[in-house]
Amino acid sequence: MLISGYDALLLDLDGTVWHGDASIPGAVDAINAAITSGRRAAYITNNASKAPRDVASKLQSIGLKATEKDVMTSAQAAVQLAQQHAAPGAAVLVVGADSFRDLVREAGFTVVDSADDAPAVVLHGHSPDNGWRHLSEAALAIQAGATYLASNLDSTLPMDRGFMVGNGSMVAAVTNATGVTPRAAGKPGPAMFTLTRDNLGVTAPLVIGDRLDTDIAGGVAAGMDTLHVLTGVSGPRALISAPADQRPTFIAEDMSVLVDASVEADQLRPCAQGGFTAAVERDDDTGGSVVVLDGGDETSTSMQALRTVLKAAWSLGAGEVPDVEAASAAARRAVESWW
């Protein structure tokens, strides 16, 4: 089983463990089984709107054994980043949740609400209450010389009703007004992963997430193996076009593969499987590349087809994104299910 090669799970939350207030089917059972087998589990989230203790409480409510020490939020990482830019006691303007402001105070800074207080740093994290006034104060402070730091740059936030506006989209408004792009503390940077690994005292963690440009890119940047699950943001189309620094080690529909004794790790890597074949051809009209998926039968799955296509697609040069054509009935069923 996949978990055999690892001593810890570094787990994203939104789109990986839960959607809104509901756990993703199979996730809780897989994590608990991994913990029972002696693995550690930690939760790494770009959502800066909740305190670690609140995240742990929510994890407990869906059936996971977790404490606040098992949680690393982008707000925690952002505060550590702020300490590199401002002295203790310095004024910091926080755009974000009350829990974010509490972390900033606990780090020894003075939290302010106005650009008129001459903050040394603007810290920008997600909160449902962020609005025009908050963004405008941030813009004024940045224009006056404050260092701009963001907890994360996620453009969307998976919720029960779909993908809502994420912190990155709010940051984009401030950047548009000031011309200043913030340094981000959260994923896809490696710091949250390496800090968590060191806190756990483990050596071979597996990063698990649903979003290529944050979860998987962060794990890759940290030099760790990654499992991409198709339960959240990034689907088959995104995988096929993923640049090298966003390509996961393993791909699966959900986390049940972690403890499935019938599934070997190598089966989850991009490779020809399920009776499928994939060949790269050139389109004479466009000059672009086409991956032709063939073979398979009634027992073949769309995931087997996807891993077969990825092996071929990722063999192409940097920046080259192929079209996919199906040459058999099984291939057509698989490709149609992706789009």
Characterization of this structure:
This protein is of the alpha/beta class and 339 residues long. It has eleven helices and 18 strands. Strand 6, helix 4 and strand 7 form a beta-alpha-beta unit. Helix 10 crosses helix 11. The longest helix is centred in the middle third of the chain and has 12 residues. The radius of gyration is 22 Å and the shape is globular. It starts with 7 loop residues before the first strand and ends with a helix. The mean pLDDT is 95.
Q: What is the secondary structure topology, with strand pairs?
A:
Elements: E1 8-11, E2 18-19, E3 22-23, H1 27-36, E4 40-45, H2 52-61, E5 71-73, H3 74-82, E6 91-95, H4 98-106, E7 110-112, E8 121-124, H5 132-143, E9 147-150, E10 156-159, E11 162-165, H6 167-178, E12 183-184, H7 191-200, E13 205-209, H8 212-221, E14 225-229, H9 236-240, E15 250-252, E16 276-282, E17 289-295, H10 302-313, E18 323-326, H11 329-338
Parallel strand pairs: 1-4, 1-13, 4-5, 6-7, 6-8, 8-9, 9-12, 13-14, 14-15, 17-18
Antiparallel strand pairs: 2-3, 10-11, 16-17
Helix pairs in contact: 5-6, 10-11
